[in-house]
Queue: 4 jobs
Job 1
Amino acid sequence: MLSGSTKHAAPAKVQKKPLKPSIWKWEALSREGVKKRGEMEGMDAKSVESKLKSIGFTPQKIQKKSKSIRLSIPGFSGISNKDLLIFTKQLSTMIDAGLPLVQGLDMLASQIGNTRLRTVVTQVKEKIESGSSFSEALKDHPKVFDTLFVQLCAAGEVGGILDTILERLAAYKEKAAKLARRVRGAMAYPAVVLVIAIAVVIVLLWKVTPVFAKMFLDFGSELPGPTQFVVDLSEWMQRNILYVLGVMIVVVIGFMLFSSWPKGKMFLDGLILKIPVFKQLVTKVAVARFSRTLGTLISAGVPILNALDVTANTAGNKVIEKAIVDVRNEISEGKSIAGPLSNRKVFPSMVVQMIGVGEATGALDQMLTKIADFYDDEVDVAVGGLTALIEPLMMVVVGGIVGGFLIAMYLPVFSLVSAVQ
């Protein structure tokens, strides 16, 4: 017999993966007997039930939400500016009416049609219930609520004027969206005409010219110079159409990558500011955006340095953004706004002088709002002038391409008619 007992090795413990919480759809009655619906994150139905009971709801139905496949695009939240604007206005009205913030968010979450925004609002509400402030809860969703939104809400919470701040924020977003629509409208026309012109050239050279070339070959006579050039270009296009399309795709992708690279974006933005027609429009848009953003932040009580940080991020042009950052750094050393701003030569002297007057009188936010209103109208004038200039220019370009092609194709016909006569 062996002395002593044989010890068996204990089997290794298999570590279980922690369970992930699921999204549950629920229906419940509030304390007032009003039927509520919503979504909530939880480990199981019982945990969701206990959460509902803890906020005074009587659960009626709890069901696990089926998973749906979503294509996630970086930087894209799936929530439009219009959805966010409506949410901001409604929340401002509810808080102004004396409704508690959590209750207001809960009511909005049950009414919002956009599922992604509804989920975000529900998560914000739950974080507030766990002890966070409204602005802290908004920071968890940077794709939906930008720095401007968070900073203004933080200032509104500190000052106890969240309803007023949300109202100003809604007005700011409405005017900013209107400004963006004007600029997009001005840029859309030349872009569409340019794409159509390129498509027309490709179709003419690829499909139409070979028909004429075959007819000219049957004539047996020497072709005029312009016609021969178009025919040779068409034959080259026939042989290299795939390469042409490939190069166009590479150029578009390369331009997108270059414009997303910080140095490339800085170069392109600087180039735009050197083109006389576009410089005027871009400068006016930048002044309107800068004044509106900075005025809204200062009137809400946001410190000037923080306000300039946010304003720089919303400039829309890297050259102007750098100028605002440089101004901010000089202000942090004790200087005023007007002095450093005039040294940058980015904004018109009239704007700098008005900002200086606003600083001297202690009404900088009001002066910035007046500047923004004035330059909103100036943007309208600039867009109208740009459109009036570009429309005939685009017509001349497209007409020149089509007219040149027709002349080149019919020159041999005219020569043949003259020879017959």
Note: The radius of gyration is 32 Å.
Job 2
Amino acid sequence: MIVKSALIISTYNWPEALSIVLQSVVEQTLLTDEVLIADDGSDEQTRDVIERFKKRIDVPVTHVWHEDSGFRKGKILNKAIASTDADYIIEVDGDCILQKDFIKDHLGFIKKGVFLYGSRVNIQKEYLPVLFKEQRISFNILSKGIKKRTRAIRIPILGYLFTSRSKLSKKVRGCNISFWRKDIIKVNGYNESIEGWGREDSELIVRMLNSGCVGRRLRYRGIVYHIWHHEKSRDKVKENDKIQRLSQEKDLIWCENGIDKYLNN
């Protein structure tokens, strides 16, 4: 199946981590047709990292930015999705290093009406000085400085053991997910009423499931390595939980405050 694909990387004011992540994109065995950086209000240091990245990769790179006004990840992701005409989108966070076959693994499993979600291996706090000094992007199950290390095992054939599901999985993470753009637009994208950390990704998935999409877990393939950082403020989690529960209880498909305002009708 030949489709136009895009990789969207969300980031906010951590250029040191983003630089390593972008290097892992350069080293991919297969690239998407374009890369978009969804920037939730970073300063010039991040812009400089992106400009250097553009010179090292042979696909178009778009920096989608808005002013810093608190955690508005859903909003900047909507803007990035609206700015591309790609058929299929892979999303990662700017603190997640991509295993070299990450894009290949996602694109190799695409199917109509199905979104994919993978796991992340955690890079430990104590290893960060080495990580940033060596600019390391290659890890395996035996590597120092990681935990949840069984998730680093890549055996693509075993991925076929995992089938599609029509229920929300606790394994869904916005840092490792892919979907058809038309399926996102059908539910009006991310709910921008969700601000602050938490539930912007799972609430979206709830509405996608309600619309008839199913999710398939990528296991033993599609691996990312999450760089440790201090937890973001969770002061909005209870409020965001209520929004998600409403979508679940009322089987909502459409959110009123979504991507449609950025689309050319």
Note: The first strand starts at residue 5 and ends at 11.
Job 3
Amino acid sequence: MSWFDRLRRGLGKTRDTLAADVRDRDRGWEMDWEDLEFALIGADVGAKLAAEVVEETRRERERGTRFHDALEQALLDQLEPSHMRQKLRRVGFDLDVSRQVVELAGRVVMVVGVNGVGKTTTIAKLARYYQGHGRSVMFAAADTFRAAATAQLEVWGERLGVPTVTGPDGGDPGAVAFDGAQARKAREIDLLFVDTAGRLHTKHNLMEELKKVRRVIGRADKGEPAEVWLVLDAVTGQNGLEQARRFHEAVGLTGVIVTKLDGTGKGGILLPVVRELELPIKFVGVGEASEDLQPYDAATFVRALLPAPAP
């Protein structure tokens, strides 16, 4: 199955909330703009952005554009606004394998997020992705508060042939991150992914701990971590937006990975992440398999999100 087909399947529940509106309007039925707005809000686009999408769609419809095409363009304008286009399209050409690869600003990626979003599994999938593009990878298991998290990352490291830096259970997460950053430089490994504890975004002291982890990485390797990625569970909906806002305020996110799009009708959460926080979506996940995590592309996402136009 192609990536587009997997993405389309994963977004099925979200698409179902929009299907009747889109197809009926394409057939020339009388437009109820309020129904469309409610459908978008139900998909977790958010009230403000839903109103903007409806208004832009209405304007294009009045110009004679087919409803499906007008809505598709309105959604794309939200997911890739012109002033953010260069920031959102950080994809370069990897000459080693003659394929596109999601660029990184540096060598260390600090991965954050609340408990249960699948950070550790996502890190393993990212490692496999970059290995497939000829990059060497290592892990730092800085979630020292859960022995299971360290053990899980070590298992993934063994499976993928990725060295893993660990510390004692309950030890200092910053020390593990520091050691990992130093080890990456010493071994001349291309990328280090730092796994962090599932911080509750409402707990001030835990956010302070994340800030510390980021600082000590910079001491071990100046300018790093150049990337701080939040793993966001699509099932959490608008609460996920608040999580992203708090993490961004605390550690300065550079990107978001949205997972579990296959289990929710809330796929619209990507819009407020991009528009309100102006953060690029780096990858999206639609399943458990490693190939179910792929680089995000706004146009592909919108085409997978909307039902096929009516004949």
Note: The chain is about 50% helix and 15% strand.
Job 4
Amino acid sequence: MTDTAFTLGMSAAFSGPSRGLGIELYRGASAYFGHVNDNGGVGARKIELATYDDGYQPDPSVRNTVSLMLEDDVFLLFGYVGTPTVTRVLPLLKKFQDRNVYLFFPFTGAQPQREPPYGAFAFNLRASYRQETAGLVDNFVEIGRRRIAVFYQADAYGRSGWAGVRRALARHGETIVGEATYRRGTKFTASLRAQVEILKESSPDAVICIGAYAACAGFVRDAVNLGLDVPIANLSFVGSENLLKLLTEHEADSAGYTRMLVNSQVVPSYEDSSIPAVREYRELMAQHDPQLPSDLLKEPYAPFAHSFVSLEGFLDAKLMVEVLRRLPDPPNRHDLEEAVFTVRDFDLGIGEPVSFGPGRRQGLQQVYYTMVEDDRFVTLHDWSAKFA
């Protein structure tokens, strides 16, 4: 931090098969930060992002974090993408806790940054994977689809979601009927037929996927092609628009691939302009059209005008600005935690008030559900009509 700027450190996936997640999150956050900077900043300080690419891999994320803390001396860490990266970064924050560097609003719903021993070093905005998986399981069980299988990424993210499904099923007296994994970084062009065959043997009523968009789109494609005709659900992390783009651009019968698809989300629909924050998001995305810095754009990528991920980044940035505004003058990292704890029933503009406190380090709790209609994700209102 200087007299003229708050510098926030961000390490995220800007390359590789999951690059759409980091890029969209960055674009949404940059739209709001750009708006704030155009209007004088926060206490006359502009907000700057020191941004590094980790490709959704733990080791580069650790190296980037060390650089951000010790060399760039950022004021805080913001907008990290993914469980496998965040879980490796959290011990660093504990190790360097005398520097009072906190991680704000990572794009992951996993438990490690929500509970001891590392929960004290992070603040979350989004609902957790436990809440997402519980909602999916509860809705499937309610319509009689009790035999649930899991397809998941073989790492901390996948296991976190797997544990959430198992925990939710146990409340209904059920267990996971089948499971198959894939390796992080798997591309859409890879064959997932072996995983589909494994799950078919368990005769599931539904499959819950815990993964990123490339592999999950490939799984949906191969599942439908091999006759696994059951609902396939994805968590919010998947990157709904990128998943749908792969299925609609590369598969001739895209409707067949998306007919039984359901994705949980942790932000409302960006199509719903009755929501004040959505109207603000759409206006500022159009006004600023934020682009990734050229030095980080290593592979071609066509951004979406709107996406669930960029809307989440936008809301993350909006709350981040509110926290910075609550700091005393002159601002100090030592005061960050207390500033966050003063956020009580804050109106973020989405109809759910945000509150934090010593025993509450997650701001939002709501989970939304979407299905595909006319090649776009829309709100799912009636599970029985869709899947029963």
Note: The longest strand covers residues 5-12.
